[in-house]
Amino acid sequence: MSVNLQKGQKISLEKEAGGALGKVTMGLGWDAIKTKGFLGFGSKSEAVDLDASCVMFDEANRPLDVIWFRQLKSRDGSIVHTGDNRTGAGDGDDEQINVDLNAVPAAARSLVFTVNSFTGQNFSQVENAYCRLLNAANGQEVARFNLSVQGGHTAQIMAKVYRHNGEWKMHAIGENASGRTFDDLLPLIAQHL
Question: The pTM is what?
Answer without folding.
Answer: 0.87
